[in-house]
Specification:
The complex is a heterodimer of chains A (about 475) and B (about 140). Chain A is an alpha+beta fold and about 475 residues long. In chain A, the strands form four sheets. In chain A, strands 7, 8, 9, 11, 15, 16, 18 and 19 form an eight-stranded mixed β-sheet that branches. Chain A has a seven-stranded mixed β-sheet with strand order 1-2-3-4-5-13-12, sandwiched between helices. In chain A, strand 15 and strand 16 form a beta hairpin. The longest helix of chain A is centred in the middle third of the chain and has 36 residues. Chain A is globular, with a radius of gyration of 21 Å. Chain A starts with 9 loop residues before the first strand and ends with a strand. Helix content of chain B is about 25%, strand content about 40%. Chain B is built from two helices and eight strands, in the order E-E-H-E-H-E-E-E-E-E. In chain B, a hairpin with a 3-residue loop joins strand 4 and strand 5. Classes of the chains: A alpha+beta (about 475), B alpha+beta (about 140). At the A-B interface, strand 4, helix 8, helix 10 and helix 13 of A face helix 2 of B.
Protein backbone atom coordinates (compact mmCIF):
# COMPACT_ATOMS: atom_id res chain seq x y z
CA UNK A 1 0.00 0.00 0.00
CA UNK A 2 1.32 3.41 -0.92
CA UNK A 3 1.66 5.72 2.03
CA UNK A 4 -0.05 9.10 1.96
CA UNK A 5 3.26 10.95 1.82
CA UNK A 6 4.58 9.03 -1.19
CA UNK A 7 2.20 10.59 -3.70
CA UNK A 8 3.41 13.55 -5.72
CA UNK A 9 1.60 16.53 -4.22
CA UNK A 10 1.95 19.90 -5.93
CA UNK A 11 1.33 23.06 -3.92
CA UNK A 12 -0.75 25.35 -6.16
CA UNK A 13 -1.42 28.05 -3.58
CA UNK A 14 -1.23 28.47 0.21
CA UNK A 15 -4.68 26.81 0.43
CA UNK A 16 -4.69 24.39 -2.51
CA UNK A 17 -2.72 21.25 -3.33
CA UNK A 18 -3.02 18.86 -6.25
CA UNK A 19 -2.20 15.23 -6.87
CA UNK A 20 -1.87 14.84 -10.64
CA UNK A 21 -3.74 12.12 -12.47
CA UNK A 22 -0.42 10.47 -13.21
CA UNK A 23 0.24 9.78 -9.52
CA UNK A 24 -1.40 6.36 -9.75
CA UNK A 25 -2.03 4.36 -12.88
CA UNK A 26 -5.75 3.89 -12.30
CA UNK A 27 -6.58 7.59 -11.70
CA UNK A 28 -8.78 9.23 -14.34
CA UNK A 29 -8.61 12.81 -13.00
CA UNK A 30 -6.40 14.78 -10.58
CA UNK A 31 -7.29 15.28 -6.91
CA UNK A 32 -7.35 18.76 -5.42
CA UNK A 33 -7.17 19.34 -1.68
CA UNK A 34 -8.15 22.63 -0.07
CA UNK A 35 -5.94 22.98 2.97
CA UNK A 36 -3.29 25.18 4.50
CA UNK A 37 -0.08 23.67 5.83
CA UNK A 38 -1.58 22.76 9.22
CA UNK A 39 -4.74 21.16 7.81
CA UNK A 40 -2.69 19.38 5.14
CA UNK A 41 -0.52 17.93 7.86
CA UNK A 42 -3.64 16.57 9.58
CA UNK A 43 -5.23 15.32 6.37
CA UNK A 44 -2.07 13.52 5.32
CA UNK A 45 -1.89 11.62 8.59
CA UNK A 46 -4.83 9.36 7.77
CA UNK A 47 -6.08 7.65 4.60
CA UNK A 48 -8.07 10.63 3.27
CA UNK A 49 -5.76 11.16 0.30
CA UNK A 50 -5.71 7.51 -0.72
CA UNK A 51 -9.49 7.48 -0.49
CA UNK A 52 -9.75 10.63 -2.65
CA UNK A 53 -7.40 9.03 -5.19
CA UNK A 54 -9.58 5.91 -5.16
CA UNK A 55 -12.57 8.13 -5.98
CA UNK A 56 -10.59 9.50 -8.94
CA UNK A 57 -10.78 6.02 -10.50
CA UNK A 58 -14.59 6.01 -10.80
CA UNK A 59 -15.82 5.58 -14.39
CA UNK A 60 -17.02 8.85 -15.88
CA UNK A 61 -15.49 11.01 -13.16
CA UNK A 62 -14.73 14.44 -14.56
CA UNK A 63 -12.76 17.58 -13.75
CA UNK A 64 -11.17 17.05 -10.35
CA UNK A 65 -11.94 15.09 -7.22
CA UNK A 66 -11.94 17.59 -4.37
CA UNK A 67 -11.13 17.19 -0.68
CA UNK A 68 -12.45 19.99 1.50
CA UNK A 69 -10.44 21.51 4.38
CA UNK A 70 -12.35 19.37 6.90
CA UNK A 71 -11.54 16.14 5.04
CA UNK A 72 -10.75 13.05 7.03
CA UNK A 73 -10.71 9.32 6.54
CA UNK A 74 -14.08 7.71 5.95
CA UNK A 75 -14.94 4.53 4.07
CA UNK A 76 -14.94 4.54 0.27
CA UNK A 77 -15.09 8.31 -0.19
CA UNK A 78 -13.25 10.44 2.33
CA UNK A 79 -15.51 12.59 4.46
CA UNK A 80 -15.29 16.05 2.90
CA UNK A 81 -15.08 14.61 -0.61
CA UNK A 82 -16.66 15.95 -3.82
CA UNK A 83 -16.72 14.15 -7.18
CA UNK A 84 -18.79 14.62 -10.31
CA UNK A 85 -19.56 12.08 -13.00
CA UNK A 86 -20.90 12.72 -16.49
CA UNK A 87 -24.20 11.59 -17.86
CA UNK A 88 -24.69 9.12 -19.50
CA UNK A 89 -21.45 7.13 -19.16
CA UNK A 90 -20.61 8.09 -15.59
CA UNK A 91 -21.55 6.17 -12.49
CA UNK A 92 -23.44 6.88 -9.32
CA UNK A 93 -22.00 5.51 -6.08
CA UNK A 94 -24.10 5.07 -2.93
CA UNK A 95 -20.85 5.11 -0.97
CA UNK A 96 -20.22 8.58 -2.41
CA UNK A 97 -23.29 9.81 -0.57
CA UNK A 98 -22.87 7.74 2.56
CA UNK A 99 -25.26 5.99 4.90
CA UNK A 100 -26.81 9.14 6.28
CA UNK A 101 -28.39 10.31 3.04
CA UNK A 102 -29.08 14.06 3.11
CA UNK A 103 -27.50 14.56 6.45
CA UNK A 104 -27.60 18.33 6.59
CA UNK A 105 -27.98 21.48 8.60
CA UNK A 106 -30.75 24.02 9.01
CA UNK A 107 -30.63 27.32 10.81
CA UNK A 108 -33.64 28.91 12.50
CA UNK A 109 -33.41 32.56 13.59
CA UNK A 110 -35.47 34.08 16.38
CA UNK A 111 -36.22 37.73 17.12
CA UNK A 112 -35.00 37.23 20.68
CA UNK A 113 -31.72 38.32 22.16
CA UNK A 114 -29.69 36.03 24.37
CA UNK A 115 -29.84 38.54 27.20
CA UNK A 116 -33.63 38.63 27.14
CA UNK A 117 -34.00 34.86 27.44
CA UNK A 118 -31.03 33.94 29.63
CA UNK A 119 -33.08 33.34 32.80
CA UNK A 120 -35.25 30.82 30.93
CA UNK A 121 -32.56 29.31 28.74
CA UNK A 122 -31.97 26.17 30.81
CA UNK A 123 -35.70 25.39 30.83
CA UNK A 124 -35.85 25.93 27.06
CA UNK A 125 -32.91 23.60 26.39
CA UNK A 126 -34.48 21.04 28.69
CA UNK A 127 -37.80 21.32 26.85
CA UNK A 128 -36.01 20.91 23.50
CA UNK A 129 -34.36 17.73 24.78
CA UNK A 130 -37.72 16.35 25.95
CA UNK A 131 -39.62 17.35 22.81
CA UNK A 132 -37.13 16.11 20.19
CA UNK A 133 -36.25 12.43 20.59
CA UNK A 134 -32.54 11.66 20.32
CA UNK A 135 -30.39 8.53 20.16
CA UNK A 136 -32.47 5.59 18.91
CA UNK A 137 -35.69 7.28 20.04
CA UNK A 138 -38.84 7.40 17.91
CA UNK A 139 -41.46 10.09 17.60
CA UNK A 140 -44.95 8.63 18.13
CA UNK A 141 -46.55 12.01 17.40
CA UNK A 142 -45.51 11.77 13.74
CA UNK A 143 -46.03 8.08 13.09
CA UNK A 144 -47.56 8.26 9.63
CA UNK A 145 -48.15 4.62 8.78
CA UNK A 146 -47.12 3.00 5.50
CA UNK A 147 -49.10 5.26 3.15
CA UNK A 148 -48.04 8.43 4.95
CA UNK A 149 -44.41 7.39 4.87
CA UNK A 150 -44.60 6.78 1.12
CA UNK A 151 -46.04 10.27 0.68
CA UNK A 152 -43.19 11.78 2.70
CA UNK A 153 -40.70 9.88 0.54
CA UNK A 154 -42.37 11.09 -2.65
CA UNK A 155 -43.16 14.68 -1.70
CA UNK A 156 -40.79 15.63 1.13
CA UNK A 157 -41.56 19.05 2.55
CA UNK A 158 -44.53 19.51 0.19
CA UNK A 159 -46.19 16.79 2.28
CA UNK A 160 -45.26 18.64 5.46
CA UNK A 161 -46.73 21.86 4.03
CA UNK A 162 -49.95 20.08 3.07
CA UNK A 163 -50.40 18.90 6.66
CA UNK A 164 -49.72 22.29 8.22
CA UNK A 165 -46.31 21.19 9.51
CA UNK A 166 -44.41 23.70 7.40
CA UNK A 167 -44.88 27.28 6.29
CA UNK A 168 -44.69 28.23 2.61
CA UNK A 169 -41.61 30.31 3.37
CA UNK A 170 -39.93 27.24 4.93
CA UNK A 171 -39.95 25.54 1.54
CA UNK A 172 -38.57 28.68 -0.13
CA UNK A 173 -35.64 28.52 2.30
CA UNK A 174 -34.84 24.83 1.85
CA UNK A 175 -32.51 23.39 -0.77
CA UNK A 176 -34.64 22.06 -3.63
CA UNK A 177 -37.68 23.23 -1.61
CA UNK A 178 -37.17 20.06 0.44
CA UNK A 179 -38.56 17.90 -2.33
CA UNK A 180 -36.65 16.10 -5.07
CA UNK A 181 -39.04 15.19 -7.90
CA UNK A 182 -37.03 12.11 -8.92
CA UNK A 183 -37.89 10.41 -5.62
CA UNK A 184 -39.34 6.93 -6.11
CA UNK A 185 -40.67 5.30 -2.92
CA UNK A 186 -41.05 1.99 -4.78
CA UNK A 187 -37.25 1.79 -4.95
CA UNK A 188 -37.00 2.01 -1.14
CA UNK A 189 -37.03 -1.45 0.44
CA UNK A 190 -39.51 -2.58 3.05
CA UNK A 191 -36.58 -2.97 5.45
CA UNK A 192 -35.66 0.69 4.94
CA UNK A 193 -39.26 1.74 5.53
CA UNK A 194 -39.37 -0.35 8.71
CA UNK A 195 -36.25 1.40 9.96
CA UNK A 196 -37.65 4.82 9.13
CA UNK A 197 -41.00 4.10 10.73
CA UNK A 198 -41.60 6.57 13.58
CA UNK A 199 -38.29 8.38 13.07
CA UNK A 200 -39.65 11.59 11.58
CA UNK A 201 -38.77 14.42 13.96
CA UNK A 202 -35.85 12.67 15.67
CA UNK A 203 -32.17 13.65 15.90
CA UNK A 204 -30.47 10.26 15.95
CA UNK A 205 -27.00 9.80 17.38
CA UNK A 206 -23.31 10.38 16.65
CA UNK A 207 -22.46 13.98 15.87
CA UNK A 208 -26.08 15.00 15.33
CA UNK A 209 -27.52 17.75 17.48
CA UNK A 210 -29.93 20.58 18.08
CA UNK A 211 -28.05 23.60 19.41
CA UNK A 212 -29.18 26.95 20.72
CA UNK A 213 -26.76 29.53 19.37
CA UNK A 214 -26.19 33.23 19.63
CA UNK A 215 -24.89 35.38 16.77
CA UNK A 216 -21.47 36.27 18.11
CA UNK A 217 -19.83 38.30 15.36
CA UNK A 218 -20.81 39.65 11.96
CA UNK A 219 -18.12 39.65 9.23
CA UNK A 220 -20.25 40.59 6.25
CA UNK A 221 -23.04 43.02 7.25
CA UNK A 222 -24.77 42.98 3.84
CA UNK A 223 -25.01 39.19 3.72
CA UNK A 224 -25.95 38.99 7.41
CA UNK A 225 -28.75 41.48 6.78
CA UNK A 226 -29.96 39.45 3.80
CA UNK A 227 -30.05 36.36 6.03
CA UNK A 228 -31.77 38.33 8.82
CA UNK A 229 -28.93 37.81 11.31
CA UNK A 230 -27.54 40.36 13.76
CA UNK A 231 -25.29 40.32 16.84
CA UNK A 232 -26.77 38.96 20.06
CA UNK A 233 -29.63 37.21 18.26
CA UNK A 234 -30.72 33.75 19.41
CA UNK A 235 -30.83 30.99 16.79
CA UNK A 236 -31.26 27.23 16.54
CA UNK A 237 -28.94 25.01 14.52
CA UNK A 238 -30.22 21.52 13.60
CA UNK A 239 -27.91 18.78 12.30
CA UNK A 240 -29.40 15.43 11.35
CA UNK A 241 -30.42 13.38 8.33
CA UNK A 242 -32.52 10.50 7.06
CA UNK A 243 -32.01 8.28 10.10
CA UNK A 244 -32.38 4.49 9.75
CA UNK A 245 -34.31 4.78 6.52
CA UNK A 246 -31.37 6.35 4.74
CA UNK A 247 -28.90 3.98 6.37
CA UNK A 248 -30.80 0.99 4.99
CA UNK A 249 -31.15 2.53 1.50
CA UNK A 250 -27.36 2.84 1.39
CA UNK A 251 -26.84 -0.69 2.74
CA UNK A 252 -29.26 -2.12 0.15
CA UNK A 253 -27.72 -0.37 -2.83
CA UNK A 254 -24.05 -0.75 -1.90
CA UNK A 255 -24.79 -4.48 -1.72
CA UNK A 256 -26.72 -4.48 -5.00
CA UNK A 257 -24.10 -2.51 -6.91
CA UNK A 258 -21.30 -4.61 -5.46
CA UNK A 259 -23.04 -7.59 -7.05
CA UNK A 260 -23.45 -6.08 -10.53
CA UNK A 261 -20.31 -3.96 -10.97
CA UNK A 262 -18.43 -6.63 -12.85
CA UNK A 263 -21.30 -6.95 -15.33
CA UNK A 264 -20.56 -3.35 -16.26
CA UNK A 265 -16.83 -3.98 -16.43
CA UNK A 266 -16.16 -1.87 -13.34
CA UNK A 267 -13.28 -2.76 -11.03
CA UNK A 268 -12.46 -0.50 -8.10
CA UNK A 269 -9.80 -0.34 -5.39
CA UNK A 270 -12.40 -0.27 -2.58
CA UNK A 271 -15.65 -2.27 -2.57
CA UNK A 272 -17.38 0.52 -0.64
CA UNK A 273 -17.14 2.64 -3.79
CA UNK A 274 -19.54 0.15 -5.44
CA UNK A 275 -21.32 1.91 -8.26
CA UNK A 276 -23.27 1.47 -11.46
CA UNK A 277 -23.80 3.64 -14.53
CA UNK A 278 -26.29 6.44 -13.96
CA UNK A 279 -28.36 5.13 -16.83
CA UNK A 280 -28.36 1.49 -15.69
CA UNK A 281 -31.39 -0.05 -13.95
CA UNK A 282 -29.38 -0.18 -10.71
CA UNK A 283 -28.20 3.42 -11.07
CA UNK A 284 -31.70 4.70 -11.76
CA UNK A 285 -33.16 2.67 -8.90
CA UNK A 286 -30.60 4.00 -6.44
CA UNK A 287 -31.13 7.57 -7.59
CA UNK A 288 -34.89 7.23 -7.05
CA UNK A 289 -34.38 5.69 -3.61
CA UNK A 290 -31.72 8.23 -2.61
CA UNK A 291 -33.96 11.14 -3.62
CA UNK A 292 -36.76 9.59 -1.55
CA UNK A 293 -34.45 9.29 1.46
CA UNK A 294 -33.35 12.90 0.91
CA UNK A 295 -37.00 13.97 1.00
CA UNK A 296 -37.38 12.05 4.27
CA UNK A 297 -34.37 13.88 5.72
CA UNK A 298 -35.68 17.32 4.80
CA UNK A 299 -39.03 16.34 6.30
CA UNK A 300 -37.22 15.13 9.41
CA UNK A 301 -35.52 18.49 9.90
CA UNK A 302 -38.86 20.18 9.19
CA UNK A 303 -40.54 18.04 11.85
CA UNK A 304 -37.81 18.99 14.33
CA UNK A 305 -38.45 22.62 13.38
CA UNK A 306 -42.10 22.07 14.27
CA UNK A 307 -41.07 20.81 17.72
CA UNK A 308 -38.59 23.66 18.24
CA UNK A 309 -41.23 26.22 17.31
CA UNK A 310 -43.62 24.67 19.83
CA UNK A 311 -40.94 24.84 22.54
CA UNK A 312 -40.22 28.52 21.79
CA UNK A 313 -43.94 29.34 21.66
CA UNK A 314 -44.45 27.74 25.07
CA UNK A 315 -41.53 29.68 26.50
CA UNK A 316 -41.88 33.04 24.82
CA UNK A 317 -45.36 33.24 23.29
CA UNK A 318 -45.69 35.27 20.11
CA UNK A 319 -42.20 36.67 20.57
CA UNK A 320 -40.78 33.16 20.17
CA UNK A 321 -41.18 32.79 16.42
CA UNK A 322 -38.46 30.91 14.56
CA UNK A 323 -37.78 31.79 10.93
CA UNK A 324 -36.00 29.31 8.71
CA UNK A 325 -32.84 30.94 7.32
CA UNK A 326 -31.90 27.96 5.17
CA UNK A 327 -31.59 24.18 5.08
CA UNK A 328 -28.82 22.54 3.08
CA UNK A 329 -27.65 18.95 2.61
CA UNK A 330 -24.07 17.76 2.93
CA UNK A 331 -24.44 14.05 2.02
CA UNK A 332 -26.14 13.80 -1.35
CA UNK A 333 -25.76 13.22 -5.10
CA UNK A 334 -27.48 15.78 -7.31
CA UNK A 335 -27.89 16.12 -11.07
CA UNK A 336 -26.63 19.64 -11.79
CA UNK A 337 -25.67 21.71 -14.80
CA UNK A 338 -22.00 22.64 -14.85
CA UNK A 339 -20.66 24.36 -17.96
CA UNK A 340 -23.71 23.34 -19.93
CA UNK A 341 -23.24 19.66 -19.10
CA UNK A 342 -25.36 17.56 -16.74
CA UNK A 343 -23.20 16.09 -13.99
CA UNK A 344 -23.98 13.88 -11.03
CA UNK A 345 -22.24 15.73 -8.20
CA UNK A 346 -21.53 13.52 -5.18
CA UNK A 347 -21.04 15.50 -1.98
CA UNK A 348 -20.00 13.32 0.95
CA UNK A 349 -19.56 15.57 3.95
CA UNK A 350 -19.52 18.62 1.68
CA UNK A 351 -22.06 21.43 1.45
CA UNK A 352 -23.47 22.89 -1.74
CA UNK A 353 -22.34 26.53 -1.94
CA UNK A 354 -24.03 28.23 -4.89
CA UNK A 355 -23.44 31.93 -5.49
CA UNK A 356 -25.69 34.92 -6.14
CA UNK A 357 -26.35 34.24 -9.82
CA UNK A 358 -27.17 30.54 -9.60
CA UNK A 359 -30.77 29.71 -10.47
CA UNK A 360 -31.10 27.43 -7.42
CA UNK A 361 -30.09 30.17 -4.98
CA UNK A 362 -33.33 31.35 -3.37
CA UNK A 363 -34.64 34.64 -4.76
CA UNK A 364 -34.31 36.36 -1.37
CA UNK A 365 -30.57 35.54 -1.29
CA UNK A 366 -29.73 36.44 -4.91
CA UNK A 367 -27.81 39.53 -3.81
CA UNK A 368 -25.37 37.57 -1.64
CA UNK A 369 -25.43 33.83 -2.42
CA UNK A 370 -26.84 30.75 -0.77
CA UNK A 371 -26.25 30.37 3.00
CA UNK A 372 -23.66 27.72 3.86
CA UNK A 373 -23.46 26.31 7.38
CA UNK A 374 -20.28 24.99 8.93
CA UNK A 375 -20.97 23.69 12.42
CA UNK A 376 -17.96 23.54 14.67
CA UNK A 377 -17.43 20.75 17.13
CA UNK A 378 -19.70 20.57 20.15
CA UNK A 379 -19.13 23.67 22.25
CA UNK A 380 -17.11 25.59 19.66
CA UNK A 381 -18.23 28.25 17.20
CA UNK A 382 -20.24 27.51 14.08
CA UNK A 383 -20.20 29.66 10.97
CA UNK A 384 -22.64 30.94 8.40
CA UNK A 385 -21.01 31.64 5.05
CA UNK A 386 -22.34 32.75 1.67
CA UNK A 387 -21.82 30.69 -1.48
CA UNK A 388 -19.86 32.23 -4.33
CA UNK A 389 -20.22 32.08 -8.09
CA UNK A 390 -16.53 31.25 -8.27
CA UNK A 391 -17.10 28.01 -6.33
CA UNK A 392 -18.71 26.47 -9.40
CA UNK A 393 -15.31 26.37 -11.10
CA UNK A 394 -13.36 25.74 -7.92
CA UNK A 395 -15.30 22.82 -6.42
CA UNK A 396 -18.48 22.15 -8.43
CA UNK A 397 -20.09 24.73 -6.14
CA UNK A 398 -19.16 23.02 -2.88
CA UNK A 399 -17.75 23.91 0.50
CA UNK A 400 -16.92 21.95 3.63
CA UNK A 401 -19.46 20.69 6.16
CA UNK A 402 -17.88 21.02 9.60
CA UNK A 403 -14.64 21.04 11.48
CA UNK A 404 -13.69 17.46 10.60
CA UNK A 405 -12.39 14.85 13.00
CA UNK A 406 -8.75 14.84 13.94
CA UNK A 407 -8.98 12.11 16.60
CA UNK A 408 -10.61 8.71 16.40
CA UNK A 409 -13.48 8.02 18.77
CA UNK A 410 -11.24 5.73 20.80
CA UNK A 411 -8.52 8.39 21.08
CA UNK A 412 -11.09 10.98 22.10
CA UNK A 413 -12.45 8.76 24.87
CA UNK A 414 -8.98 7.93 26.11
CA UNK A 415 -8.05 11.63 26.13
CA UNK A 416 -10.97 12.87 28.22
CA UNK A 417 -13.99 11.41 29.98
CA UNK A 418 -17.53 12.42 29.13
CA UNK A 419 -17.91 13.91 32.60
CA UNK A 420 -14.85 16.11 32.05
CA UNK A 421 -16.22 17.30 28.71
CA UNK A 422 -19.59 18.05 30.29
CA UNK A 423 -17.96 20.02 33.14
CA UNK A 424 -15.85 22.04 30.71
CA UNK A 425 -18.81 22.96 28.53
CA UNK A 426 -20.88 23.93 31.57
CA UNK A 427 -18.00 26.03 32.93
CA UNK A 428 -18.22 28.02 29.70
CA UNK A 429 -21.92 28.63 30.25
CA UNK A 430 -23.09 26.02 27.74
CA UNK A 431 -26.11 24.00 28.84
CA UNK A 432 -25.69 20.36 27.82
CA UNK A 433 -28.30 17.64 27.45
CA UNK A 434 -26.82 14.32 26.34
CA UNK A 435 -28.01 10.89 27.43
CA UNK A 436 -24.57 9.28 27.15
CA UNK A 437 -21.28 10.40 28.66
CA UNK A 438 -19.48 8.16 26.16
CA UNK A 439 -21.00 10.07 23.26
CA UNK A 440 -19.95 13.35 24.87
CA UNK A 441 -16.36 12.16 25.10
CA UNK A 442 -16.35 10.98 21.46
CA UNK A 443 -17.61 14.37 20.31
CA UNK A 444 -15.34 16.46 22.53
CA UNK A 445 -14.05 19.65 20.90
CA UNK A 446 -10.48 18.32 21.08
CA UNK A 447 -11.48 15.44 18.77
CA UNK A 448 -12.02 17.92 15.93
CA UNK A 449 -9.93 20.26 13.85
CA UNK A 450 -9.91 23.97 14.55
CA UNK A 451 -13.09 25.21 12.86
CA UNK A 452 -11.67 28.75 12.64
CA UNK A 453 -8.82 27.46 10.49
CA UNK A 454 -11.15 25.35 8.34
CA UNK A 455 -13.43 28.33 7.71
CA UNK A 456 -10.44 30.56 7.02
CA UNK A 457 -9.29 28.21 4.24
CA UNK A 458 -12.80 28.05 2.75
CA UNK A 459 -12.94 31.87 2.78
CA UNK A 460 -9.44 32.39 1.37
CA UNK A 461 -9.96 29.79 -1.33
CA UNK A 462 -13.13 31.57 -2.41
CA UNK A 463 -15.40 28.55 -1.94
CA UNK A 464 -17.69 30.62 0.30
CA UNK A 465 -17.45 33.94 2.16
CA UNK A 466 -17.59 34.27 5.93
CA UNK A 467 -20.80 36.00 7.09
CA UNK A 468 -21.35 35.45 10.82
CA UNK A 469 -19.99 33.40 13.68
CA UNK A 470 -22.41 31.63 16.02
CA UNK A 471 -21.58 30.66 19.59
CA UNK A 472 -23.39 27.76 21.29
CA UNK A 473 -25.24 28.36 24.55
CA UNK A 474 -27.26 25.12 24.67
CA UNK A 475 -26.50 21.68 23.24
CA UNK A 476 -28.95 18.80 22.82
CA UNK A 477 -26.83 15.88 21.62
CA UNK A 478 -28.09 12.95 19.68
CA UNK B 1 3.42 -27.80 11.19
CA UNK B 2 -0.05 -27.88 12.70
CA UNK B 3 -1.15 -24.61 14.30
CA UNK B 4 -3.12 -24.43 17.49
CA UNK B 5 -6.74 -23.48 16.77
CA UNK B 6 -7.51 -19.83 17.43
CA UNK B 7 -9.82 -19.05 20.32
CA UNK B 8 -12.60 -16.64 19.35
CA UNK B 9 -11.59 -13.05 20.01
CA UNK B 10 -12.18 -9.57 18.70
CA UNK B 11 -10.59 -6.13 18.78
CA UNK B 12 -12.01 -2.68 18.13
CA UNK B 13 -9.39 -0.90 16.02
CA UNK B 14 -9.03 2.85 15.83
CA UNK B 15 -10.55 4.53 12.79
CA UNK B 16 -10.77 8.31 12.39
CA UNK B 17 -14.54 8.48 12.30
CA UNK B 18 -15.94 4.96 12.51
CA UNK B 19 -15.26 1.65 14.28
CA UNK B 20 -13.19 -1.08 12.69
CA UNK B 21 -13.67 -4.64 13.99
CA UNK B 22 -11.05 -7.37 13.75
CA UNK B 23 -12.45 -10.81 14.58
CA UNK B 24 -10.61 -14.12 14.86
CA UNK B 25 -11.81 -17.69 15.35
CA UNK B 26 -10.94 -21.24 14.38
CA UNK B 27 -13.86 -21.63 11.97
CA UNK B 28 -16.30 -19.58 9.91
CA UNK B 29 -19.24 -20.30 12.30
CA UNK B 30 -17.02 -19.28 15.20
CA UNK B 31 -15.92 -16.11 13.41
CA UNK B 32 -19.48 -15.05 12.64
CA UNK B 33 -20.63 -15.73 16.22
CA UNK B 34 -17.72 -13.69 17.56
CA UNK B 35 -18.56 -10.86 15.15
CA UNK B 36 -22.06 -10.82 16.64
CA UNK B 37 -20.59 -10.50 20.12
CA UNK B 38 -18.27 -7.71 18.97
CA UNK B 39 -21.22 -5.82 17.51
CA UNK B 40 -23.05 -6.19 20.83
CA UNK B 41 -20.05 -4.64 22.58
CA UNK B 42 -20.22 -1.61 20.29
CA UNK B 43 -24.00 -1.28 20.61
CA UNK B 44 -24.44 -1.97 24.31
CA UNK B 45 -21.14 -0.69 25.75
CA UNK B 46 -21.45 -0.91 29.52
CA UNK B 47 -25.25 -0.96 29.64
CA UNK B 48 -26.55 -3.28 32.37
CA UNK B 49 -27.90 -6.31 30.55
CA UNK B 50 -30.98 -8.12 31.80
CA UNK B 51 -31.47 -11.86 31.26
CA UNK B 52 -31.42 -12.70 27.57
CA UNK B 53 -34.64 -13.33 25.69
CA UNK B 54 -35.46 -16.80 24.29
CA UNK B 55 -33.39 -18.13 21.42
CA UNK B 56 -34.38 -17.06 17.92
CA UNK B 57 -33.20 -18.24 14.53
CA UNK B 58 -31.61 -15.90 12.00
CA UNK B 59 -30.70 -16.83 8.43
CA UNK B 60 -28.59 -14.76 6.06
CA UNK B 61 -27.70 -15.36 2.41
CA UNK B 62 -24.90 -13.59 0.66
CA UNK B 63 -22.58 -13.66 -2.34
CA UNK B 64 -19.27 -14.63 -0.77
CA UNK B 65 -17.61 -15.24 2.57
CA UNK B 66 -16.59 -11.66 3.27
CA UNK B 67 -19.97 -10.28 2.20
CA UNK B 68 -21.57 -12.82 4.52
CA UNK B 69 -19.79 -11.20 7.46
CA UNK B 70 -21.13 -7.73 6.51
CA UNK B 71 -24.62 -9.00 5.69
CA UNK B 72 -24.81 -10.88 9.00
CA UNK B 73 -23.90 -7.76 10.96
CA UNK B 74 -26.31 -5.66 8.90
CA UNK B 75 -29.12 -8.09 9.75
CA UNK B 76 -28.32 -7.65 13.45
CA UNK B 77 -28.24 -3.85 12.98
CA UNK B 78 -31.66 -4.06 11.35
CA UNK B 79 -33.11 -6.09 14.25
CA UNK B 80 -31.63 -3.66 16.77
CA UNK B 81 -33.26 -0.68 15.10
CA UNK B 82 -36.65 -2.17 14.25
CA UNK B 83 -37.24 -4.46 17.25
CA UNK B 84 -34.86 -2.87 19.76
CA UNK B 85 -33.46 -6.39 20.03
CA UNK B 86 -29.73 -6.62 20.68
CA UNK B 87 -28.15 -10.04 20.23
CA UNK B 88 -25.71 -11.08 22.93
CA UNK B 89 -25.27 -14.85 22.62
CA UNK B 90 -24.77 -16.51 19.26
CA UNK B 91 -24.46 -20.06 17.99
CA UNK B 92 -23.89 -20.23 14.26
CA UNK B 93 -25.20 -23.70 13.54
CA UNK B 94 -24.47 -23.72 9.83
CA UNK B 95 -22.27 -21.52 7.66
CA UNK B 96 -20.78 -21.90 4.22
CA UNK B 97 -19.31 -19.33 1.85
CA UNK B 98 -22.68 -17.80 1.03
CA UNK B 99 -25.14 -18.46 3.86
CA UNK B 100 -25.50 -18.90 7.57
CA UNK B 101 -28.07 -20.10 10.04
CA UNK B 102 -27.69 -18.95 13.62
CA UNK B 103 -29.39 -19.22 16.98
CA UNK B 104 -29.20 -16.05 18.99
CA UNK B 105 -30.59 -14.58 22.11
CA UNK B 106 -30.28 -11.10 23.44
CA UNK B 107 -32.12 -8.30 25.13
CA UNK B 108 -34.81 -5.84 24.20
CA UNK B 109 -33.77 -2.34 25.27
CA UNK B 110 -35.51 0.94 24.59
CA UNK B 111 -32.20 2.78 24.69
CA UNK B 112 -28.76 1.46 23.81
CA UNK B 113 -25.82 3.83 23.87
CA UNK B 114 -23.99 2.72 20.74
CA UNK B 115 -26.02 3.17 17.57
CA UNK B 116 -24.50 1.38 14.56
CA UNK B 117 -25.79 2.52 11.18
CA UNK B 118 -24.29 -0.22 9.03
CA UNK B 119 -21.49 -2.65 8.37
CA UNK B 120 -19.65 -1.30 5.32
CA UNK B 121 -17.69 -3.06 2.57
CA UNK B 122 -14.66 -0.81 3.19
CA UNK B 123 -11.64 -2.97 3.99
CA UNK B 124 -13.96 -5.95 4.35
CA UNK B 125 -12.16 -9.27 4.40
CA UNK B 126 -12.21 -12.77 5.79
CA UNK B 127 -8.93 -14.58 5.31
CA UNK B 128 -7.18 -17.69 6.50
CA UNK B 129 -4.56 -17.22 9.20
CA UNK B 130 -2.59 -19.87 11.07
CA UNK B 131 -5.08 -21.78 13.23
CA UNK B 132 -8.25 -20.32 11.74
CA UNK B 133 -9.78 -17.25 10.14
CA UNK B 134 -9.52 -13.51 10.61
CA UNK B 135 -12.14 -11.02 9.49
CA UNK B 136 -12.16 -7.23 9.34
CA UNK B 137 -15.13 -4.95 8.85
CA UNK B 138 -15.71 -1.22 9.30
CA UNK B 139 -18.89 -0.13 11.05
CA UNK B 140 -20.49 3.24 10.38
CA UNK B 141 -21.39 4.57 13.81
Amino acid sequence: MTSESSYAVHVLSPVLREVPATARADMRVPVRIYADDELWSQISQDRSLTQAINVATLPGVTGFVYAMPDAHEGYGFPVGGVAATREPDGVISPGGVGYDINCGVRLLASDLSLESVRPRLEAVVHDLSRSIPSGPGRNPRLDLGVDGLDQVLREGCRFMLGHGWALPEDLESTEASGSLPAADPAMVSDKAKQRGHGQLGTIGSGNHFVEVQVVDEVFNPAAAAAYGLHPGQLAILIHTGSRGLGHQVCTDYVRRMDQVMLQYGIQLPDRQLACAPLTSPEGRAYFGAMCAAANFAWSNRQAITLSARAVFARAFGQAGGLRLVYDVAHNIAKLEQHGGVTLCVHRKGATRAFGPTHSETPERYRSVGQPVFIPGSMGTASYVLAGTDAALALSFGSSCHGAGRVMSRGEAKRARSGAEVRRELESRGIIVRCPSSGELAEEAPTAYKDVERVVDVVHRAGLARRVVRLRPVGVVKG
Amino acid sequence: MAHRKIRPSHELLDHKSEVQLRVRAASLPGLLAEAGRALAEVQLRDTPRPCPSPWRTIEVHSRDRASLLADWLNELVFLAETERWFGMEFEVTQADECSLRARARGVVLEVAPGVVKAATLHGLKVEAVPGGLQGEVTLDV
